[in-house]
Amino acid sequence: MRSTKDRIRHALAFEIIGLLIFAPLASWVFGFELHSMGVIAIAGSIVATVWNYFYNVLFDNAMLKVRGEVKKTVPIRVLHAALFEGGLLVLFLPAIAWYLDISLWEAFKMDIAMATFYLVYAFVYNWIYDRVFPIAEAG
Known about the structure:
Layout: H1 4-30, H2 34-67, H3 74-100, H4 104-132
Helix pairs in contact: 1-2, 1-4, 2-3, 3-4
């Protein structure tokens, strides 16, 4: 399993890189000021960082219980990313609608677009992270 230090490095790097890509892209795609998308992105990043830590601890513990290891296959990575984004959607949707003064439906469509971006990003990021920082074998 990963150490707390490694999990913190993982979460912070994920959010920083994601912010640098997402905020300008979202501003362009959704037509809101970069500042507004930056606020949404930073607030989402804080929520996602906290969620990321606890979610990954829970997911890894579940994998150990079910599979006896934390090594992720491609289908497990897809499930991992989808469940993460689904939980984040439920946590963050009302805040988007409130801050941007848009309907929940509009916020839902925006959140689905953001979740799609982060779903692909999470898959690629975690794959690369595991190659750069492999999990030490138990023993």
